[in-house]
Amino acid sequence: MDSSYLSLVKKPVRESQTYMLPQIDYAVKANQNENPRDVPQDLKQEILSAIERHPWNRYPALTAPEIRKKIADAHSLNYEQIAVGNGSNEIMLAIMQALLSEGRTMVTVEPTFSLYSHYAQILGARVQSLPLGENFQFPVHNLVAKAAQNEVALTIICSPNNPTGNTIAHEDLVKILKAANGYVLVDEAYVDFTDQQFIPLVAQYQNLILTRTFSKAFAFGLGRFGYAIGAANFIAEIYKVLLPYNLNGFSEIAAGILLENREKLQYQIDKIKNQRTFLYTELGKIDGMTVYPSEANFLLVKFENSAQSVFDAMLEEKILLRNVSHYPGLDNHLRISVGTLHENQKILETLRRCCG
């Protein structure tokens, strides 16, 4: 086919980069903030049995009302306040498609999850990224001022923030919500590893949207299940954007069983939080690096010398870390997902050799 046809592809698409991670053989995988422990075997069997009993030749229920009701009940909400999808990223994209276009602006911070700006630019919206302050604190004053502007349809905050690990304070989020001309989306992908409680604010502020995922704390990255919480009238609009049957029935069944057995997964979450403390303490003892506090399941580390050389040395030992040095303000930084005790000890042992 003549390559001139590519000119028909929208310019923002042609100019953007594909979101990719190289597939590399590993001994320790600490680059994608996954739960280092799998779903317990008894829950896997329960899920597989439920899937086996279900007829595969029939479509799942349109808009997945059963899992939406289970999530709503877990948070004392109405199911009409819940949207579910193929990972929280799908729902975020639908929210952006509903709100963003040429002439409208999205506000976020930097550094943060890169897909926010990626999506917004493809949709033709203007992106205003505000730099985080000292120790990666959220620039609340500037966020309030920007969110109040007429052309700003959406403000996105990741809390705990990826890749810095810090959270926005409850009272600061309220300031932004009160000032905002448009919607405020808080990406809570890592909320299970902190004490953040923003759900009660949904009843008070019609412009607040929360998104969550089962890919981290719930150890269900394979299933790609996520959900959003917001005002019922806004969620109804989002379902006009999402594809019909956007959530496959297998993931819906699995997510429901995982949600019903949250207590069986809580021990994994507690272990990750304990290992986060251990890893933070031990990293702090290694010369040549600075480790930052985190309320997520990862730690951000700054190296005095080349982070790329450390990354490469770790890779030679088949230890995958995430090099985030290309993020604004993060020159010579690596992000390390919290693993099991054995994995964390291996990471520490190798880093001591590399940096020593």
The SSE string, one letter per element, is HEHHEHEHEHEHEHEEHHHEEHEEEH
Low-pLDDT runs: none
Compute the average pLDDT: 96
CATH fold node name of the largest domain: Aspartate Aminotransferase, domain 2
Q: Classify the secondary structure makeup into a structural class.
A: alpha/beta
CATH architecture name of the largest domain: 3-Layer(aba) Sandwich
Distance between the termini: 54 Å
| CATH class label of the largest domain | Alpha Beta
Q: How many strands, what sense, and barrel or not for the largest sheet?
A: 7 strands, mixed
Portion in helices: 25-40%
- How much strand? 15-25%
How many domain modules?
A: 2
Describe this structure in words.
By secondary structure, the chain is α/β, with parallel strands linked by helices. It has 2 domains: 21-39 and 263-355, Alpha-Beta Complex (Aspartate Aminotransferase, domain 1); 41-261, Type I PLP-dependent aspartate aminotransferase-like (Major domain) (Aspartate Aminotransferase, domain 2, 3-Layer(aba) Sandwich), CATH 3.40.640. It has 13 helices and 13 strands. The strands form 3 sheets. A 7-stranded mixed sheet has the order 2-8-7-6-5-3-4, sandwiched between helices. α4 packs across α9 (232-241) and α6 packs parallel to α7 (170-179). The protein is globular and about 55 Å long. The termini are far apart. The model has no long low-confidence stretch (mean pLDDT 96).
Question: What's the layout of helices and strands?
Answer:
Blueprint: H1 11-15, E1 28-29, H2 41-53, H3 65-74, E2 82-86, H4 88-99, E3 105-110, H5 115-122, E4 126-131, H6 140-147, E5 152-158, H7 170-179, E6 183-187, H8 200-204, E7 208-213, E8 225-229, H9 232-241, H10 249-260, H11 262-283, E9 289-291, E10 298-303, H12 307-316, E11 319-320, E12 322-323, E13 333-337, H13 341-355
Parallel strand pairs: 1-11, 3-4, 3-5, 5-6, 6-7
Antiparallel strand pairs: 2-8, 7-8, 9-10, 10-13, 12-13
